[in-house]
Specification:
6 copies of one chain form a homohexamer. With 130 residues, chain A is mostly helical. Chain A has 6 helices and no strands. The interface between C and D is large, with 62 and 63 residues.
């Protein structure tokens, strides 16, 4: 599927593009949205979800970008690592912070398999009191 | 493989257990370490790595626990979600924060596949020193 | 490993190539089979399985191509997305259908992690009556 | 996190529950929504997305349930296999159809790795627009 | 889907069961085959493939069981870890060997993500016939 | 992140590079280590773990390389497949052996999903006697 530029986009797609640009203060939306616009319903839902969850909440925006980056590295999404890595830097992430995110990603992927391989039973202390 | 308790552990394993207990100020190590002790070399390496990386660094300890939790949820490691969820709470994570972590995990897993499915090319702006 | 062309293939490999070309009515097999031919036993097994399962059955061939595409997008296999996307189009899939497949893939990858993260217990109503 | 029942749910959560019940013609929402309600924003977004994409579109609803099931089997989400398997049956899927879905899932997971392992280059014929 | 026992199985399924029992010298097939028998075509293909590839070849049978176990641990298939762990033991694997397999699985899952996260370019020396 | 060459590396990084070169008898470390050097603590931990576990132990070094390759193919790490494929060849792996590894990887990825999809219960015979 090709990227859909603003000029050739439907009204519904342009509305999402406009909101994205206004929310982020950018001149153009990035390639992810231009491709997702091939499915205008998903474009609207994904944008609405990200705008909401990645905005103000219980966690600060930088922490959420780092979590997004960590999941993207686990799933090997090169585009997402590039875009959320750039977003993290724009929100103040240093090289040291990004390297530490990757280190945690590496360790978690290792211990996730070790815990599953050994079939480790959950400790009583970790069970919610509920 | 069975869990290896302190009483029946080798000297090398006990040394790791002792350091874990002293570092974390706990009376006993959790089930993960007791199972990993079946491979004493890995026990020592994994503990040394986690002690180092999850300790003081560029990111605060809570952020690193949340990243660990996010990767564990992506990989569906129930044990790791329980242990790092408990660790995150011990370091101050609220229900709202944990729910937001899961929300970001859900979104990232969705957009990771969408970006890969559409084969979205990386934007020039995301390229380092571009 | 290099692709193995018909001219330099063993008799066993040529037999699979011939059957593939006759079954699909094509002049040459695609690159996947030419690489898999490095392991002639797997070539024969994989071809026999696909010919059988992707042929007439309980589901129509297009539905099976879309399912194949959805799994390939989940696993990030660019080659498989290209080949099964092309196969789906050849069997009548429109752009709208492929975009909708990707949308479902995105949603499923999101809710799969959310269901696992929350450890949602299976509803009684979903359990087979068995 | 505990399931949130209607009686103890916020107004926003109840509104989603009401819409889910009305849309599906059921007496109660299933456990997935009751757990996701711990993050009311995600509850609303996920429900809105699923209602829209899994409803009328380019593909018939049963096909989309089968795709959802296939992705869930690939990701090993037991809850999602149970819920979307039940939904597929409710929409007319036979045992033969579900077994064939699993067969395709198995084959795709096999050939996805083989294509990646051999680094198979995409055939010219699979490339869009020539 | 329920397990299909010999008594209630079709002729085609019984033929596979008989061959499995004769090949392995066992009194009954294990649960995997009894469930896969719900899709008799896949039962036949999967059995034929495994009998062939896991039998005599370039690698000894134990090495192949250990590889099977390593992939199963990476994918978190508890059933497959149990069955191929047992098969490995039956072919001579010691506790030390199985623990070392898990250790390698852990390391590989860690470095796989680190290599992808850093986007490490392939060294010239690793390229075939370079 | 850029690769860090010996000339511009810190003392701690040079020490790892030196040990890697001495252990492996090579003139330079490969690109993986040069990128991982951006996080000197992980560089040291990952190197120490690999040197130890991939060295002499319960399994011969070639078997461990093949397991590493199998996990890397499952996770689709192109760099790791290249580096561990080369290492396996250096330790004596033939084309036939590598092709058989890929065949086992394909089969395991198929049956892992089938076992999970059917929710196959673990046979009594596979349970450890513990």
């Amino acid at each position: 599927m090709k990227a859909i530029e603003y000029e050739s986009a439907s009204e519904a797609v342009c509305a999402v593009y406009d909101d994205t640009k206004a929310t982020r203060g950018v001149a153009d939306v990035n390639n992810f949205w231009k491709h997702l616009a091939n499915e205008p319903r998903m474009l609207a839902h994904v944008w609405a979800s990200l705008k909401d969850i990645m905005g103000p909440g219980a966690l600060d925006p930088l922490t959420k970008e780092l979590i997004y980056l960590a999941v993207s590295a686990t799933n090997n999404c090169a585009y997402c690592m590039a875009s959320h890595g750039a977003a993290a830097r724009a929100k103040g992430a240093s090289d040291e912070m990004l390297n530490e995110v990757y280190a945690v990603v590496g360790l978690a992927n290792m211990t996730n398999r070790l815990a599953n391989a050994y079939g480790v039973p959950v400790d009583e202390a970790f069970r919610p009191e509920g």
